[in-house]
Automatic annotation (TrEMBL), chain A:
Membrane-topology annotation of the record: Multi-pass membrane protein
Protein's UniProt name: Autoinducer 2 import system permease protein LsrD
Keywords: Cell inner membrane, Cell membrane, Membrane, Transmembrane, Transmembrane helix, Transport
Role noted for this protein: Part of the ABC transporter complex LsrABCD involved in autoinducer 2 (AI-2) import. Probably responsible for the translocation of the substrate across the membrane.
GO terms assigned for molecular function: transmembrane transporter activity
Domain of life: Bacteria
InterPro entries (alphabetical): ABC_transp_permease
UniProtKB/TrEMBL annotation, chain B:
Alphabetized GO MF terms: transmembrane transporter activity
UniProt subcellular location: Cell membrane
Family annotation (InterPro entries): ABC_transp_permease (IPR001851)
One Gene Ontology term, aspect cellular component: plasma membrane
Organism lineage: Bacteria, Pseudomonadati, Pseudomonadota, Alphaproteobacteria, Rhodobacterales
Keywords for this protein: Cell inner membrane, Cell membrane, Membrane, Transmembrane, Transmembrane helix, Transport
Domain of life: Bacteria
Pfam (any one): BPD_transp_2
UniProt-recorded name of the protein: Ribose ABC transporter permease
Record-annotated membrane-spanning stretches: 12-32, 44-64, 94-116, 122-142, 163-184, 213-231, 251-282, 294-314
TrEMBL record, chain C:
CDD domains listed in its UniProt record: ABC_Carb_Monos_I, ABC_Carb_Monos_II
InterPro entries: AAA+_ATPase, ABC_carbohydrate_import_ATPase, ABC_transporter-like_ATP-bd, ABC_transporter-like_CS, P-loop_NTPase
Subcellular location: Cell membrane
Residues in coiled coil: none
Protein name: Ribose ABC transporter ATP-binding protein
Length: 350, 324, 501
């Protein structure tokens, strides 16, 4: 390194854009989309020989339906991405989803709501979303104030919130069909279903948050090196709180999208959603240890899982194979990631 | 020296706090409803906790070794379905060892991935949760599995029988707890589990075969799951595909409640048994005072958070977290 | 005289049962590089925590530009122009250089958006001051350690600093990188910034500082003017006595060759390394961090697979593919990172010590308590390990006693060859000489010992022979008679002897 010749580093200041991605990061984040394309090709080709149905796999209606069906888990998985970039995890989203759904449907039967006509709908949504935010805030506050690991906190509240779900209406399903709401949920705008619009809207907003805002960049910093973030004056506690409120909100939004159409909640609904969401996030390449991950890749992970479900069904495989295949793919992704990051023979064998 | 002994006493309280809480809890409920400590009731609670308990014993090894096992629930469904199915095709004498062998294969696969390939245990066992569920569905063809001749088999012994008036599930749980407790606290292998979970790198630098130790913890966990599956199948003589669904997190809750750290290197079998019993008696106590079963979920939530919070608070010697 | 930029007066900080700082004074003038020295545990880091607002002093005052000030957080300290550059890099390596430099204070636009244009412009301005060659948009993880250190320094320049505190900044830098760092310090000096420089490296202290303040046992021992003092005087002030650093070659007969290594290579970590060590001999390995010394030790212990070369133990060719192989063939390794690699901190003293041989200490299927305690007690006495009981958690012991547990762990295995990597890193001076004597004793008892160290006095003090390494190669081997400090420094800096002559 020569000190005698000062090197001006003046990098051309480009337009007001966030940092570009390194090539390897692009490769890793592109991998999930490559996988999605592979799935499409495989199921289209295999479908010709094996399919029991007459329509092609790549049929537009089929694909639109796929996007719509991706929405409930997808919206939750997007929130989980942020939580995991923070280096936390949230196991309570399934229960939050169910409780918000109950509030959504039950609130429309409340006497004063019945008197409000169609105005009851946005209000019910508000109640449901509020429920999600409050449940998320409880998690966030406990993580912040007690310093107990988020895994344990949300493992506890997964049980606790599920208990609240049961206490609301015992073991009975909670039902309320509002036809205006069902029409809205089943509507298609520019070809896409309402649920798909919610999914894409969430992707857009969260992508902007994570790449363009101070809060998003801090989320990466905290997950990447928490101590450094603390030393730099980032207030980690409130930051966590906001993100847990956000994922609570998204779990509730997912419930709003799904139950507006179906109109009936069982107290066991949403069980294992946390595990599906985490699977999608990990498939998208987000690191469990935090500091690394992307919203767009999570969308890829969500679509990849849904394609697999639909595709296996399309080529006549039983639904049970889906669980097996997704589980093994998750492990294979982990294995590949590890192989790609190996330093070869120079690595210390510990 | 006085400071040291004081710290020793404080540390002892912190370590045994959950035991103290358990005793207090039992006394309060016994006063509220004397039937609570009735011998039949106590025996009933332990019996119904035995399946969860045996699984928790195995997961304790995995957690002390510094890993997680989220697959035990779906693996238990697998064992149950397989043993019920084989019961009618192979007969009970062959079905049981065959089921154990198959379950141990699953455990070995996980142990290989986590131990030898060093893949993240949370994700591996999450993937296996799904994969084993798929295997179970494929085995059963999506149907419930029932033993054809429920009254003509001795198979019900493990779930329904009793020896000298003590129900067999309780005996199996107790036996497993004693054996595994000795393995963990007294054998060289047990010592190595603590070392690997406490600091895997230092264990390697001391010549401890880390991969093999982790592998063995998953084998032990799978053996416990197979035992639990046997008890479950034997008790019900018929089962759904999803009998163990969600148990992975309840099991983990019991282990954490017992005070094992998710970071590895700490915990004991005795404490896990306490954790299991607390969960069982809470459920029972709430039922006895006339509350629905699901109230226990909320109570368990509060208790887990409080237990772990007090534990970390004792370690950092301040109640509230230093997070800004 | 100009007024000091920073002055600490009578700082007292007590913890339950300990008086960590006992009336410490410190004064830093503008444009001055002021060294702060003292053993580990002397109170340097406590003092810096008080200065940075992480700890509140019980007594005493802090003045910035002669204004009495109360510091409540590192952020506030930074706002007042007092900036810390920490020993351990505190960077987020997935983020860019610019984002790291402005971590916690990213410029904002409406809706909480980051003002990228301003961020990059300001970063470029700072980077050009430092004359570095990387871009504001580079991912920090892609930079070399030295450049990461530059990012850390760049952080200090986001404010107009009055005082900059460097805490062991050169620990992982090469010589070339060090001189860049020293240029930056000189630049800051010219601007009238006061600098506190914390280091254990005398040579650097005497190269760049103006004055030296010394702490011992939490109290202020005085300030010396660098150009009027000597290393001996500073050392005496630090430890209250002169340290005996005389050569200490063996006076006993050496035995057979215990370990012989021929042509060992491993990737680009080290190439064609040959040496041997005899029973009763201490072989020193000296070189900079990254020269390949630790990697050779790890290979001998079965943690790395060599591409080529042979290892002979007691004359027989040995195949070592795992630590278990290495232990079986009589090799013990006291690793460099005591807490990360040497000990399971949450386990008790006895269990740590007997860990490698616990399989052999059984009666029936169970570990025999008696056999374990016997071993522990034997080595506790032999090594003078100070702990109330074997039940004590290792994490609660002092660094010196922890190191003795690790050494005891291997001695109790009666190894042919004992490798000790950085035997006294992070250990206070008193325990240091104890460990040095212990190593000499082991050799006298007939053990073959390899000592790897980055501290020249240490290598000179304990070794019978010294292997000097540079960039993965053995440059030269010295006997204790022929070695001089100059020739050793040349060898580890890559200067070939005959060209230097």
């Amino acid at each position: 390194m020569s000190q005698s010749t000062p090197q001006p580093i003046a990098s051309p200041v480009e337009a007001d854009t966030p940092p570009r991605k390194s090539r390897s990061a692009l490769f890793v984040q592109g991998a999930i989309w490559g996988f999605v394309v592979l799935e499409l090709i495989f199921f289209s080709v295999a479908g010709r020989f094996l399919s029991v149905s007459d329509t092609a796999f790549l049929d537009l209606d089929n694909m639109l339906l796929l996007l719509k069906q991706s929405a409930p888990i997808g919206i939750i998985a997007l929130g989980m991405t942020i939580i995991m970039i923070n280096g936390n995890i949230d196991l309570s989203v399934g229960a939050t989803f169910a409780l918000s759904a109950i509030v959504l449907l039950d609130s429309m039967t409340w006497p004063f709501m019945a008197a409000m006509g169609d105005w009851a709908i946005p209000l019910a949504w508000l109640f449901a979303l509020g429920t999600g935010v409050v449940l998320g805030a409880i998690n966030g506050l406990i993580v912040w104030k007690t310093g107990v690991d988020a895994f344990i906190v949300t493992l506890g509240s997964m049980l606790g919130y599920r208990g609240l779900v049961f206490m609301y209406n015992g073991e009975q399903p909670t039902s309320h069909l509002n036809w205006t709401l069902v029409d809205f949920a089943e509507a298609q705008f520019l070809g896409l279903h309402t649920a798909t619009w919610f999914l894409l809207g969430t992707v857009l907003v969260l992508w902007l948050v994570m790449t363009r805002t101070v809060h998003g960049r801090n989320a990466y910093a905290i997950g990447n090196n928490r101590e450094a973030a603390v030393n730099a004056g980032i207030r980690v506690g409130p930051h966590f709180l906001i993100n847990f409120m956000l994922i609570g909100f998204l779990a509730a939004l997912s419930a709003v999208v799904f139950y507006s159409e179906s109109g009936s909640v069982n107290p066991n609904d949403g069980m294992l959603y946390e595990l599906w969401a985490i699977t999608a996030v990990v498939l998208g390449g987000t690191k469990l240890s935090g500091g690394y991950g992307s919203i767009i890749s999570t969308l890829g992970g969500v679509i990849a899982i849904q394609l697999l479900r639909k595709g296996l069904g399309y080529i006549g495989a039983d639904t049970e194979t889906v669980n097996l295949v997704i589980g093994l793919i998750l492990i294979a992704v982990l294995f590949l990631d590890r192989q790609l990051n190996r330093k070869g023979s120079e690595e210390l064998k510990i | 020296m006085t400071a040291l002994t004081k710290a020793g006493i404080g540390g002892l309280l912190a370590r045994q706090g959950i035991l103290v809480a358990f005793v207090v809890f039992m006394i309060v409920f016994a006063i509220a409803n004397p039937r609570f400590i009735d011998i039949d009731n106590v025996s009933g609670v332990i019996r119904s906790s035995a399946i969860l308990g045996v699984m928790a014993l195995g997961v304790t090894f995995v957690v002390i070794g510094g890993n997680l096992d989220l697959s035990v629930g779906s693996m238990m469904s697998f064992s149950t379905i397989v043993v019920l199915d084989l019961h009618d095709t192979l007969g009970p004498t062959l079905a049981i060892p065959a089921m154990f062998a198959l379950t141990l294969c699953l455990g070995a696969f996980i142990g290989f991935l986590v131990g030898y390939l060093r893949l993240n245990s949370l994700i591996v066992t999450l993937g296996m949760l799904s994969a084993i569920h798929g295997l179970t569905l494929m085995w059963s063809g999506g149907q419930n599995m029932d033993i054809a001749d429920k009254w003509g088999t001795w198979f019900g012994f493990f779930g329904r029988g009793s020896i000298a008036g003590v129900p067999v599930p309780i005996l199996m749980f107790a036996l497993a707890a004693v054996v595994l407790s000795l393995v963990l606290s007294k054998t060289p292998f047990g010592r190595k589990v603590y070392a690997v979970g406490g600091n895997g790198t230092a264990a390697t630098f001391s010549g401890v075969p880390r991969a093999r130790v982790v592998f063995m913890t998953y084998i032990i966990s799978a053996a416990c799951v197979a035992t639990a599956g046997l008890m479950q199948a034997s008790r019900s003589l018929g089962s759904q595909n999803t009998v163990g669904q969600g148990m992975e997190l309840e099991v983990l809750a019991a282990v954490i409640l017992g005070g094992a750290s998710l970071l590895g290197g700490s915990g004991t079998i005795f404490k896990t048994v306490i954790g299991v019993l607390i969960l069982g008696f809470i459920q029972n106590g709430l039922l006895l005072i006339g509350l629905e079963f699901y109230v226990q979920y909320v109570v368990t939530w509060v208790i887990i958070i409080l237990a772990v919070w007090l534990d970390v608070a004792a370690k950092r010697s301040r109640l509230w977290s230093p997070i800004a | 005289m100009t007024q000091p930029v920073l002055r600490l007066e009578g700082i007292v900080k007590t913890f339950p049962g300990v008086r960590a700082l006992d009336g410490v004074d410190l004064e830093v003038r503008p444009g001055e590089v002021h060294a702060l020295m003292g053993e580990n545990g002397a109170g340097k880091s406590t003092l810096m925590k008080v200065l940075g607002g992480i700890l509140q002093p019980n007594e005493g005052r802090i003045y910035i530009a002669e204004q009495p000030t109360v510091m409540t957080s590192p952020i506030e300290a930074k706002g007042k122009g007092v900036v810390f550059i920490h020993q351990e890099l505190s960077l987020a390596d997935e983020l860019t250089v610019a984002e790291n430099i402005f971590l916690g204070e990213l410029p904002r636009k409406s809706f909480g958006r980051v003002d990228w244009a301003r961020l990059y412009a300001e970063t470029d301005a700072i980077l050009s001051q430092l004359r570095v060659r990387f871009d504001a948009r580079t991912r920090v993880g892609d930079l070399s350690i030295a450049n990461q250190q530059m990012v850390e320094i760049a952080r200090a320049l986001t404010v107009d600093p009055r005082a900059v505190i460097f805490d062991e900044p050169t620990a992982s830098l090469t010589d070339a990188e060090k001189s860049v760092l020293f240029d930056v310090i000189a630049d800051l000096q010219k601007k009238g910034v006061g600098i506190i420089y914390i280091s254990h490296r005398m040579e650097e202290i005497f190269r760049i500082t103006d004055r030296i303040s010394v702490l011992r046992d939490g109290s202020y021992r005085g300030t010396l003017v660098t150009k009027d003092t000597s290393e001996d005087e500073v050392t005496q002030l630090m430890i209250g006595r002169s340290l005996d650093l005389s050569r200490n070659a063996s006076h006993h007969e050496l035995g057979e060759v215990a370990l012989e290594v021929r042509g060992l290579s491993c990737g680009h970590l080290y190439r064609d390394v040959s040496f041997n060590v005899r029973k009763g001999e201490v072989l020193g390995f000296y070189g900079l961090v990254g020269a390949g010394r630790t990697e050779i030790a790890e290979t001998l212990f079965g943690l790395r697979t060599p591409d080529a070369g042979t290892i002979r133990i007691d004359g027989k060719e040995a195949r070592i593919t795992s630590p278990i192989d290495a232990i079986r063939q009589g090799i013990g390794l006291v690793p460099e990172d005591r807490k990360g690699q040497g000990l399971v901190l949450g386990m008790n003293c006895r269990d740590n010590m007997t860990l490698p041989q616990v399989d052999g200490l059984t009666s029936g299927p169970f570990v025999s308590d008696g056999a374990e305690i016997e071993i522990f007690d034997r080595y506790k006495d032999k090594l003078d390990i100070r702990t109330p009981s074997w039940r004590q958690t290792v994490g609660n012991l002092s660094g010196g006693n922890q190191q003795k547990i690790v050494i005891g762990k291997w001695l109790s295995m009666r190894p042919e060859v004992l490798i000790v990597d950085e035997p006294t890193r992070g250990i206070d001076v008193g325990s240091k000489s104890e460990i040095h004597n212990l190593i000499r004793d082991l050799a006298a008892q007939g053990y073959a010992v390899i000592v790897i160290s980055s501290e020249m006095p240490e290598v000179l003090h304990v070794s019978d022979r010294i292997v000097a390494m540079y960039s993965g190669k053995v440059m030269r081997e010295f006997t204790s008679e022929e070695v001089t400090e100059d020739s050793l420094i040349q060898a580890i800096s890559g200067i070939v002897p005959d060209r230097a002559a």
